[in-house]
Amino acid sequence: MAEAKRVQRPLSPHLQIYRPQLTSFTSILTRITGNAMAVTVVLIVWWLLAAASGEHYFRTANGVLTSWFGDVVLTASVLGMWYHLLAGLRHLYFDSGRGLDIPTAEKLGIACIVGSVVLTVLTVIVL
Amino acid sequence: MRYLTDRKRAAGLGSAKTGTEHFWHMQMSSVALLFLIPAFIFTFGRVLGRRYEQVLDYYAQPFPAIIAALTLIVGMVHFKNGAQVMIEDYAHGITRKALIISATCFSYGSIAIGLFALIKLAL
User: Fold this and answer.
1) Which of A29, A31, A70, B69 meets the CB 3.0–4.6 Å disulfide criterion with A65?
2) Torsion region of A7: left, alpha or beta (phi above 0 gives left; psi -120 to 50 gives alpha)
């Protein structure tokens, strides 16, 4: 029958066993950038709430977001966001069953890293 | 004695019981965000750093306000599902449940606060 018996299966070696690879690096970076957006969301939602609550409160939130600290966090967020967006595109492409051979995956990985930097520079110039 | 055949019992019940919905929702929200995120970056980025009155006028307009609302809703649902996968990879037992609940509260909380602010700005 289908009742599975508990057996001791071998575990796969853990992450630090492997040599760092571009494919694993880009994958981990996708997760980090996506989850780090929580910080950005807190800042932006706070700013919106402050704007809705009156001028005095707005000055405080706006002061933080437009300070050097805010600039650093938001510019890093833009970089992270563009990276996550490009990596997401790459994943949608992977999910369609294409681009999964290592040379293509590595080329797309480099494209994500370079592309996110280029888009961030363009965003900073435009805004 | 079971009257169902093994094949019938297994149909649609992998070890995770469900699973494709989560993946499909991540794909759907990611496609939506491909359009929403650039729109949000360039609307929000345009008004950030302006004076208070300009911000009020800007977010009283439909386009930037709706883009911000949609980005917040779709983005935070996408965040919730993505964070859940990360938590499930690294945390176990009660910690896992507590973290997933926290991430869910954070996501819907951000949506609620953001929408409240946007509606108040629009009115």
Assistant:
1) A70
2) beta
Please answer yes or no on whether A88 and B45 come within 8 Å at the CB atom.
no
Q: Give the residue carrying structure tokens 């809703």.
A: B73
Q: Which residues of B touch A38 (CB under 8 A)?
A: 79, 83, 106
State the complex-level ipTM.
Answer: 0.85
Round to the nearest angstrom and report the end-to-end CA distance of chain B.
65
Positions of chain A with pLDDT lower than 50, given as ranges? none
Helices (H) and strands (E) in chain A, counts: 4, 0
Contact assessment for residue B55 and residue B46, using Cβ atoms and an 8 Å cutoff: no
Chain B residues whose beta carbon lies within 8 Å of the beta carbon of residue A2: 6, 9-10
Q: How far apart are CA A64 and CA A101, in angstroms?
A: 45
pTM of the predicted model as reported, rounded to 2 decimal places? 0.86
Work out the burial of residue A9: count CB atoms within 10 Å of its CB; fewer than 13 is exposed, 13-18 middle, 19 or more buried. Answer: exposed
* Spatial separation of the C-alpha atoms in residues A111 and A83, rounded to whole Å: 10
